[in-house]
Design a protein that fits this description.
mainly beta, 5-stranded antiparallel beta sheet, 29 strands, 53% strand, globular
Protein backbone atom coordinates (compact mmCIF):
# COMPACT_ATOMS: atom_id res chain seq x y z
CA UNK A 1 0.00 0.00 0.00
CA UNK A 2 1.71 3.23 -1.12
CA UNK A 3 2.00 6.13 1.28
CA UNK A 4 1.95 9.61 -0.20
CA UNK A 5 2.71 12.70 1.84
CA UNK A 6 1.12 15.94 0.70
CA UNK A 7 2.33 19.32 1.87
CA UNK A 8 1.32 22.88 1.11
CA UNK A 9 2.20 26.34 2.36
CA UNK A 10 2.68 30.02 1.71
CA UNK A 11 3.37 31.16 -1.84
CA UNK A 12 3.56 34.93 -1.28
CA UNK A 13 4.77 37.40 1.32
CA UNK A 14 2.09 37.67 4.03
CA UNK A 15 4.11 39.70 6.52
CA UNK A 16 4.89 37.02 9.09
CA UNK A 17 6.08 34.66 6.35
CA UNK A 18 7.80 35.39 3.05
CA UNK A 19 6.15 32.61 1.09
CA UNK A 20 8.25 30.73 -1.47
CA UNK A 21 6.03 27.69 -2.04
CA UNK A 22 5.09 26.54 -5.54
CA UNK A 23 1.83 24.73 -4.78
CA UNK A 24 0.97 21.30 -3.38
CA UNK A 25 3.90 18.91 -3.00
CA UNK A 26 3.52 15.14 -3.18
CA UNK A 27 6.22 12.90 -1.70
CA UNK A 28 6.56 9.14 -1.71
CA UNK A 29 7.18 7.77 1.79
CA UNK A 30 9.11 4.52 2.20
CA UNK A 31 7.89 2.83 5.38
CA UNK A 32 11.00 0.71 5.89
CA UNK A 33 13.66 3.38 5.54
CA UNK A 34 11.35 6.30 6.44
CA UNK A 35 12.76 8.12 3.41
CA UNK A 36 10.84 10.85 1.55
CA UNK A 37 11.13 11.48 -2.20
CA UNK A 38 9.51 14.38 -4.04
CA UNK A 39 7.30 13.08 -6.85
CA UNK A 40 5.59 16.18 -8.20
CA UNK A 41 4.31 19.67 -7.40
CA UNK A 42 0.79 20.68 -8.39
CA UNK A 43 0.28 24.42 -8.86
CA UNK A 44 -2.64 25.92 -6.95
CA UNK A 45 -4.81 28.52 -8.75
CA UNK A 46 -5.07 30.56 -5.53
CA UNK A 47 -2.40 31.99 -3.22
CA UNK A 48 -1.15 30.31 -0.06
CA UNK A 49 -2.65 26.80 0.01
CA UNK A 50 -2.18 26.28 3.74
CA UNK A 51 -4.49 23.45 4.82
CA UNK A 52 -5.80 20.17 3.39
CA UNK A 53 -8.06 17.23 4.13
CA UNK A 54 -8.89 14.03 2.27
CA UNK A 55 -12.15 12.14 1.88
CA UNK A 56 -12.73 8.72 3.44
CA UNK A 57 -12.23 6.91 0.12
CA UNK A 58 -8.82 8.58 -0.36
CA UNK A 59 -9.89 9.79 -3.78
CA UNK A 60 -10.46 13.51 -3.24
CA UNK A 61 -8.27 16.21 -1.68
CA UNK A 62 -9.63 19.55 -0.46
CA UNK A 63 -7.28 22.52 -0.17
CA UNK A 64 -7.97 25.94 1.37
CA UNK A 65 -6.29 28.95 -0.25
CA UNK A 66 -5.54 31.60 2.38
CA UNK A 67 -5.83 35.30 1.59
CA UNK A 68 -4.13 37.62 4.08
CA UNK A 69 -7.10 39.90 4.82
CA UNK A 70 -10.93 39.78 4.98
CA UNK A 71 -11.00 40.82 1.30
CA UNK A 72 -10.66 39.33 -1.24
CA UNK A 73 -12.35 36.11 -0.25
CA UNK A 74 -10.41 32.87 -0.02
CA UNK A 75 -11.21 29.81 -2.10
CA UNK A 76 -11.39 26.07 -1.52
CA UNK A 77 -10.19 23.76 -4.29
CA UNK A 78 -11.19 20.16 -5.01
CA UNK A 79 -8.61 17.77 -6.48
CA UNK A 80 -8.98 14.18 -7.67
CA UNK A 81 -6.18 11.91 -6.45
CA UNK A 82 -4.54 9.22 -8.56
CA UNK A 83 -4.11 6.14 -6.37
CA UNK A 84 -1.15 4.84 -8.36
CA UNK A 85 0.93 8.01 -8.64
CA UNK A 86 -0.49 10.46 -6.10
CA UNK A 87 -0.95 12.96 -8.92
CA UNK A 88 -3.64 15.61 -8.41
CA UNK A 89 -6.17 16.89 -10.94
CA UNK A 90 -8.14 20.08 -10.26
CA UNK A 91 -11.90 19.43 -10.32
CA UNK A 92 -13.49 22.54 -8.86
CA UNK A 93 -13.30 25.73 -6.78
CA UNK A 94 -15.69 27.56 -4.47
CA UNK A 95 -15.55 30.84 -2.57
CA UNK A 96 -15.05 30.57 1.19
CA UNK A 97 -17.06 33.80 1.59
CA UNK A 98 -14.36 35.19 3.86
CA UNK A 99 -10.67 35.98 4.10
CA UNK A 100 -7.93 33.78 5.48
CA UNK A 101 -9.41 30.31 4.96
CA UNK A 102 -7.10 28.39 7.28
CA UNK A 103 -8.77 25.04 7.99
CA UNK A 104 -10.80 22.54 5.99
CA UNK A 105 -12.39 19.35 7.35
CA UNK A 106 -14.58 16.59 5.98
CA UNK A 107 -17.76 15.90 7.96
CA UNK A 108 -18.05 12.25 9.09
CA UNK A 109 -21.22 11.78 7.04
CA UNK A 110 -19.23 12.47 3.88
CA UNK A 111 -21.92 14.94 2.80
CA UNK A 112 -20.25 18.19 3.86
CA UNK A 113 -16.92 20.00 4.12
CA UNK A 114 -16.36 22.63 6.83
CA UNK A 115 -14.07 25.63 6.35
CA UNK A 116 -12.88 28.21 8.90
CA UNK A 117 -11.96 31.75 7.84
CA UNK A 118 -9.41 33.34 10.16
CA UNK A 119 -9.51 36.96 9.03
CA UNK A 120 -13.29 37.12 8.70
CA UNK A 121 -14.13 35.12 11.83
CA UNK A 122 -16.54 32.92 9.91
CA UNK A 123 -17.51 29.30 9.35
CA UNK A 124 -18.93 27.86 6.15
CA UNK A 125 -20.36 24.43 5.30
CA UNK A 126 -20.35 23.11 1.73
CA UNK A 127 -22.27 20.19 0.28
CA UNK A 128 -20.26 17.56 -1.59
CA UNK A 129 -21.39 16.08 -4.86
CA UNK A 130 -21.96 12.41 -3.94
CA UNK A 131 -20.28 11.15 -7.12
CA UNK A 132 -17.45 13.56 -7.92
CA UNK A 133 -16.81 14.94 -4.43
CA UNK A 134 -16.77 18.47 -5.86
CA UNK A 135 -18.00 21.15 -3.46
CA UNK A 136 -21.25 22.82 -4.42
CA UNK A 137 -22.48 26.40 -4.28
CA UNK A 138 -24.38 28.05 -2.75
CA UNK A 139 -23.06 26.96 0.63
CA UNK A 140 -25.35 24.93 2.85
CA UNK A 141 -24.52 26.93 5.99
CA UNK A 142 -22.68 30.11 6.93
CA UNK A 143 -21.97 32.00 10.16
CA UNK A 144 -19.91 35.15 10.74
CA UNK A 145 -19.21 36.42 14.26
CA UNK A 146 -19.94 40.10 15.08
CA UNK A 147 -16.89 42.35 15.40
CA UNK A 148 -18.19 43.49 18.77
CA UNK A 149 -17.41 40.09 20.32
CA UNK A 150 -13.63 40.53 20.06
CA UNK A 151 -11.97 40.70 23.49
CA UNK A 152 -9.06 43.09 22.62
CA UNK A 153 -6.87 41.67 25.42
CA UNK A 154 -4.07 41.27 22.89
CA UNK A 155 -4.58 44.46 20.90
CA UNK A 156 -2.72 43.21 17.82
CA UNK A 157 -4.16 39.70 17.55
CA UNK A 158 -7.59 39.96 19.18
CA UNK A 159 -8.99 42.98 17.33
CA UNK A 160 -11.79 40.88 15.83
CA UNK A 161 -13.09 37.27 15.89
CA UNK A 162 -10.62 34.84 14.34
CA UNK A 163 -11.88 31.30 13.63
CA UNK A 164 -8.91 28.94 13.38
CA UNK A 165 -10.38 25.44 13.10
CA UNK A 166 -13.67 23.53 12.79
CA UNK A 167 -13.47 20.06 14.31
CA UNK A 168 -16.51 17.78 14.69
CA UNK A 169 -16.95 15.74 17.85
CA UNK A 170 -15.63 12.18 17.26
CA UNK A 171 -18.88 10.41 18.21
CA UNK A 172 -21.43 13.18 17.50
CA UNK A 173 -20.19 14.67 14.24
CA UNK A 174 -23.03 17.17 14.01
CA UNK A 175 -21.51 18.99 16.99
CA UNK A 176 -18.61 21.15 15.74
CA UNK A 177 -15.99 22.86 17.93
CA UNK A 178 -14.53 26.11 16.56
CA UNK A 179 -11.62 27.82 18.38
CA UNK A 180 -11.95 31.61 18.13
CA UNK A 181 -8.55 33.17 18.80
CA UNK A 182 -9.95 36.71 18.83
CA UNK A 183 -12.69 36.02 21.39
CA UNK A 184 -10.91 33.66 23.83
CA UNK A 185 -13.46 30.91 23.44
CA UNK A 186 -14.21 27.69 21.62
CA UNK A 187 -17.59 28.09 19.96
CA UNK A 188 -19.97 25.18 19.45
CA UNK A 189 -22.13 24.71 16.37
CA UNK A 190 -24.72 22.17 15.30
CA UNK A 191 -24.71 21.02 11.67
CA UNK A 192 -28.26 20.37 10.47
CA UNK A 193 -29.37 17.62 8.11
CA UNK A 194 -29.11 20.02 5.17
CA UNK A 195 -25.75 21.43 6.28
CA UNK A 196 -27.17 24.52 7.98
CA UNK A 197 -25.21 25.91 10.95
CA UNK A 198 -26.61 26.88 14.37
CA UNK A 199 -24.41 28.34 17.10
CA UNK A 200 -25.14 26.81 20.52
CA UNK A 201 -25.23 28.79 23.79
CA UNK A 202 -22.48 26.62 25.30
CA UNK A 203 -18.83 27.59 24.77
CA UNK A 204 -15.45 26.81 26.31
CA UNK A 205 -14.26 30.12 27.75
CA UNK A 206 -10.49 30.48 28.07
CA UNK A 207 -8.47 32.74 30.40
CA UNK A 208 -8.16 36.30 29.02
CA UNK A 209 -5.62 36.69 26.22
CA UNK A 210 -5.23 32.93 25.62
CA UNK A 211 -6.06 32.92 21.92
CA UNK A 212 -7.35 29.35 21.33
CA UNK A 213 -6.05 28.02 18.01
CA UNK A 214 -6.59 24.27 17.59
CA UNK A 215 -8.00 21.37 19.58
CA UNK A 216 -7.95 17.58 19.61
CA UNK A 217 -10.17 14.99 21.30
CA UNK A 218 -9.57 11.82 23.23
CA UNK A 219 -10.96 8.65 21.72
CA UNK A 220 -14.52 9.00 23.07
CA UNK A 221 -14.74 12.79 22.84
CA UNK A 222 -15.22 13.22 26.58
CA UNK A 223 -12.13 15.46 26.78
CA UNK A 224 -11.01 18.22 24.43
CA UNK A 225 -7.40 19.42 24.53
CA UNK A 226 -7.16 23.03 23.34
CA UNK A 227 -3.90 24.72 22.44
CA UNK A 228 -3.87 28.45 23.20
CA UNK A 229 -1.52 30.16 20.77
CA UNK A 230 -1.02 33.53 22.44
CA UNK A 231 -0.24 32.30 25.98
CA UNK A 232 1.42 29.08 24.81
CA UNK A 233 -0.75 26.78 26.93
CA UNK A 234 -2.93 23.69 26.67
CA UNK A 235 -6.38 23.66 28.28
CA UNK A 236 -7.92 20.34 29.30
CA UNK A 237 -11.68 20.58 28.82
CA UNK A 238 -14.24 17.93 29.84
CA UNK A 239 -17.16 17.55 27.41
CA UNK A 240 -20.52 16.17 28.53
CA UNK A 241 -23.25 15.45 26.01
CA UNK A 242 -26.84 14.67 26.87
CA UNK A 243 -29.54 13.14 24.72
CA UNK A 244 -29.37 11.71 21.20
CA UNK A 245 -30.28 15.11 19.74
CA UNK A 246 -27.54 16.89 21.72
CA UNK A 247 -30.19 18.62 23.78
CA UNK A 248 -27.65 19.16 26.57
CA UNK A 249 -24.01 20.13 26.07
CA UNK A 250 -21.78 21.01 29.02
CA UNK A 251 -18.17 22.10 28.51
CA UNK A 252 -15.65 23.55 30.95
CA UNK A 253 -11.94 24.08 31.60
CA UNK A 254 -10.47 21.53 34.01
CA UNK A 255 -6.86 22.74 33.92
CA UNK A 256 -4.43 24.88 31.92
CA UNK A 257 -0.80 23.82 31.48
CA UNK A 258 2.19 25.69 30.01
CA UNK A 259 3.64 24.21 26.82
CA UNK A 260 7.15 25.50 27.46
CA UNK A 261 8.96 24.86 30.77
CA UNK A 262 9.15 28.06 32.87
CA UNK A 263 12.95 28.02 32.97
CA UNK A 264 13.05 28.61 29.20
CA UNK A 265 12.89 32.26 28.20
CA UNK A 266 11.81 33.99 25.01
CA UNK A 267 8.51 34.29 23.22
CA UNK A 268 6.77 31.22 21.88
CA UNK A 269 3.42 30.55 20.21
CA UNK A 270 1.78 27.16 19.86
CA UNK A 271 0.55 25.86 16.51
CA UNK A 272 -0.62 22.26 16.01
CA UNK A 273 -1.94 19.78 18.57
CA UNK A 274 -2.35 16.03 18.06
CA UNK A 275 -2.87 12.93 20.15
CA UNK A 276 -0.66 9.91 19.59
CA UNK A 277 -2.32 7.03 17.70
CA UNK A 278 -2.80 5.18 21.01
CA UNK A 279 -4.26 8.32 22.66
CA UNK A 280 -1.79 8.13 25.57
CA UNK A 281 0.12 11.32 24.77
CA UNK A 282 -0.71 14.84 23.61
CA UNK A 283 1.77 16.67 21.36
CA UNK A 284 1.96 20.43 20.74
CA UNK A 285 4.31 22.32 18.43
CA UNK A 286 5.94 25.53 19.66
CA UNK A 287 6.99 28.30 17.30
CA UNK A 288 9.65 30.60 18.72
CA UNK A 289 11.08 27.86 20.93
CA UNK A 290 11.04 25.65 17.80
CA UNK A 291 10.18 22.51 19.70
CA UNK A 292 7.46 19.99 20.48
CA UNK A 293 5.94 19.49 23.92
CA UNK A 294 4.89 16.00 24.99
CA UNK A 295 2.16 15.56 27.60
CA UNK A 296 1.37 12.23 29.21
CA UNK A 297 -2.28 11.48 29.82
CA UNK A 298 -2.41 10.16 33.37
CA UNK A 299 -4.12 6.76 33.59
CA UNK A 300 -4.99 6.94 29.89
CA UNK A 301 -4.19 3.25 29.53
CA UNK A 302 -6.90 2.45 32.06
CA UNK A 303 -9.35 5.33 31.70
CA UNK A 304 -9.69 7.19 28.41
CA UNK A 305 -12.04 9.70 30.07
CA UNK A 306 -9.39 10.95 32.49
CA UNK A 307 -8.84 14.74 32.24
CA UNK A 308 -5.45 14.55 33.95
CA UNK A 309 -2.46 15.71 31.91
CA UNK A 310 1.25 16.15 32.71
CA UNK A 311 4.04 17.81 30.72
CA UNK A 312 6.70 15.11 30.61
CA UNK A 313 9.05 16.10 27.81
CA UNK A 314 10.05 19.18 25.92
CA UNK A 315 11.61 17.95 22.68
CA UNK A 316 14.01 20.65 21.58
CA UNK A 317 14.83 20.97 17.90
CA UNK A 318 17.76 18.82 16.87
CA UNK A 319 17.54 19.19 13.09
CA UNK A 320 17.84 22.96 12.59
CA UNK A 321 14.18 23.46 11.76
CA UNK A 322 12.51 26.81 12.40
CA UNK A 323 8.83 27.36 13.21
CA UNK A 324 7.22 23.88 13.46
CA UNK A 325 3.85 24.82 11.98
CA UNK A 326 2.34 21.35 11.63
CA UNK A 327 3.03 17.67 12.24
CA UNK A 328 1.30 14.37 11.54
CA UNK A 329 1.71 10.74 12.56
CA UNK A 330 2.28 8.21 9.79
CA UNK A 331 1.97 5.38 12.31
CA UNK A 332 2.55 4.76 16.02
CA UNK A 333 6.34 5.12 15.71
CA UNK A 334 6.74 7.79 13.01
CA UNK A 335 5.87 11.49 12.95
CA UNK A 336 6.44 14.04 10.18
CA UNK A 337 7.20 17.59 11.37
CA UNK A 338 6.99 20.55 8.98
CA UNK A 339 9.08 23.66 9.63
CA UNK A 340 7.66 26.76 7.96
CA UNK A 341 10.50 29.28 8.28
CA UNK A 342 13.36 26.92 7.45
CA UNK A 343 11.38 25.29 4.62
CA UNK A 344 11.85 21.64 5.46
CA UNK A 345 10.03 18.48 6.44
CA UNK A 346 11.72 16.05 8.85
CA UNK A 347 10.92 12.52 9.95
CA UNK A 348 10.96 11.74 13.68
CA UNK A 349 10.98 8.35 15.37
CA UNK A 350 8.48 8.09 18.23
CA UNK A 351 8.71 5.92 21.33
CA UNK A 352 5.07 5.01 22.11
CA UNK A 353 5.92 4.11 25.71
CA UNK A 354 7.25 7.47 26.91
CA UNK A 355 6.23 9.65 23.95
CA UNK A 356 9.76 10.80 23.21
CA UNK A 357 10.69 11.85 19.68
CA UNK A 358 14.06 11.95 17.97
CA UNK A 359 15.14 12.66 14.42
CA UNK A 360 15.86 9.60 12.33
CA UNK A 361 18.01 11.54 9.85
CA UNK A 362 15.48 11.77 7.04
CA UNK A 363 14.26 15.09 5.69
CA UNK A 364 13.53 17.07 2.54
CA UNK A 365 13.24 20.67 1.43
CA UNK A 366 9.66 21.94 1.56
CA UNK A 367 9.27 25.65 0.87
CA UNK A 368 7.46 27.69 3.58
CA UNK A 369 5.37 24.66 4.48
CA UNK A 370 2.21 25.10 6.58
CA UNK A 371 0.46 21.71 6.44
CA UNK A 372 1.50 18.05 6.17
CA UNK A 373 -0.91 15.23 5.33
CA UNK A 374 0.15 11.56 5.01
CA UNK A 375 -2.26 9.50 2.92
CA UNK A 376 -2.26 5.73 2.44
CA UNK A 377 -3.85 4.94 -0.92
CA UNK A 378 -5.22 1.54 -1.83
Amino acid sequence: MPVFVYTCGYTENVGFCDGKGKGINCYAYEEGSRALKLLHITPCPGPNPTYMCVDAARKTLYVSSETNSPEPHSKVFTYAMDAATGQLELRGAVSARGGGACFVHLHASGKFVLVSNYHSGSLICFRRDPDSGVLQEPAAGFFEAPLSEAVHVNAERQERPHFHQALPHPTHADLVFVPDLGCDRVRLFRVGAAGDLTQLPAAIVMPPGSGPRHLAFNRSGSVAFVTNELLSTVAVCPVQLGGPALDSVAVSVHSVLPCVPPELTGQSWTAAIRLSPDYKHVYVSNRGRDSLSVFRRSSAAHNDNSPELELTRHVADTVGGKCPRDFAFVDATTCLVSFQNSSNLFVFKVNPEDGNMESCGQGVECLTVACVLPVKLE
